[in-house]
Amino acid sequence: MVRVGEPLSIEDVVRVARGFEEVTISEAALERMERGRAVVEAHLKGDKPIYGVNTGFGALSEYVIGQEDIETLQLNLVRSHSCGAGEPLPVEIVRASMLLRAQVLASGFSGVRPELAMMLVDMLNARIHPFVPEKGSVGASGDLAPLAHIALCMIGEGFCVSDSGVVSAGEALKKAGLRPISLKPKEGLSLVNGTQVMTGAGALALYDAEHLCLAADIVGAMTLDAVKGSPDAFDERIVSLRPHKGAIESARLLRLMLKDSEIRESHRGCKKVQDPYSLRCMPQVHGAVRDGLSFVRQILETEINSVTDNPLVFQDGAIISGGNFHGEPVAIALDLLAIAVSELASISERRVEHILNPSLSGGLTPFLGAKEGLCSGMMIAQVLCASLVSQNKVLAHPASVDSIPSSANKEDHVSMGMTSAMKAREVVENVFTVLSVEALCASNGLLQRRPLRGGVGVRAAEEVLGAVVAPYRDDRPLSWDIEKVKAVIRPGGGFVEKTVKAINAMDG
Fold first, then answer.
1. Tell me, what DSSP letter sits at residue 107?
2. Is 207 annotated as catalytic?
3. Is 37 exposed, middle or buried, given 0-12, 13-18 or 19+ CB atoms closer than 10 A?
4. Catalytic residue among 51, 63, 207, 472
5. Angle at the Cα of 56 (from 97 to 59), degrees rounded to 5?
6. What are 64-79's pLDDT values in tens digits?
7. 190: Cβ–Cβ under 8 A, 6 or more apart, which residues?
8. pLDDT digits (tens, 9 = 90+) for 382-418
9. pTM score, whole prediction
10. Which domains are seen in the chain, by residue range?
11. If you ran DSSP here, which 8-state letter would residue 452 be given?
12. Taking the CB of residue 356, how many other CB atoms lie within 10 A of it?
């Protein structure tokens, strides 16, 4: 069970977003929210203008709202800000966003009633997923439009997505036995102000990207054996002289993967002195990605447990406007994620070329085809990789360097963090495909080396792949094979998990 109001991790987000794990709220969080709400209620008895409580929003903040209209103000905010476009966000991103928004409210600094956080938790547990258009956030006052669509469902308006299609939010809540929320002063603003959608999407992309680092080492080792490469460059003495943590870990895994390789022993005395960079420099490249993602994790886990509302409500009675909602920290981190993980595909595509190109592969058949000329083999698999690597180059351009002022220049610098998140997500998906292609090519290259076998870890990886896809002999459509491999390479698919378990057991 995941408990809102206590520190959350990336893994907690994944368990709720993808695993539908039950969510609850800590008693301490409920008490904090009660105390924060009491501060807001005390201020409502006076006539001092408080942003978003008894004033308009953004460029309209100079307008003071009368007591008789302050609840309508919150309702109008949610309705007017539900202004997105495009396809609905995947359910996993919506769930991650709902969890993280509940986490912000549970801090007590938003000044809302506990009922709001409880409603988000109840919706998660009932699997009620708001229809949230994917486009419309500039990451300024956070993810205003996406969060507003979530809030819209909480008040019984808008739509939800379900297994049977799109249904009205009112119908979905009624079916789950939940009553729509009636918004009190400040509560509409507290539901839409923050970075939770970009952060939720980014957390899921990061989780997958870290998994891809493991997959890249495993698949890269398979390729090295398939093309008769040398593991000497991964010697612990070499990487210790440039002790970046990521490179050290990558080299360790590569050494374990390639231990006791019969293929290696078969060409130990060959004339080749060094392998190309895509083989020899795997620890340096894969390791740099690991280190970059380590920074991204630090930023996202800080953000997950931060308060990004505005204004903020303090126990000493102060209500202060600030800028914690600005998405720049997340935007820059997710731009780095896209840049870093794209390199896993870039170097992987070059390794695919080494397997398929007969002048580089060390004796494998051209493109791994069964009959030269008659069979094209896996020729177009490399073309697919080239296409995706090239697309990643475009997607890796940072969104965070852009800014278009909004709200009559009140929000004159924005982060474009949601764009960073969605680009990173697409890059990660492309890398899954490229590594799946390399795994498919490497496993078939290794078959041509039989009866010689690769390293112990390589054999474990081959076994997992062999259970889901048949050897490639005569030409056949490769798309389906690639999708089967991709399914096992994803987190929980077994390829990485079983291989890592095998080599760690060997390492003691």
1. T
2. no
3. buried
4. 51
5. 90
6. 777 778 888 889 989 9
7. 105, 110, 111, 112, 116, 309
8. 999 999 999 999 999 999 999 888 887 778 889 999 9
9. 0.96
10. 2-194 (1.10.275.10), 202-507 (1.20.200.10)
11. S
12. 25
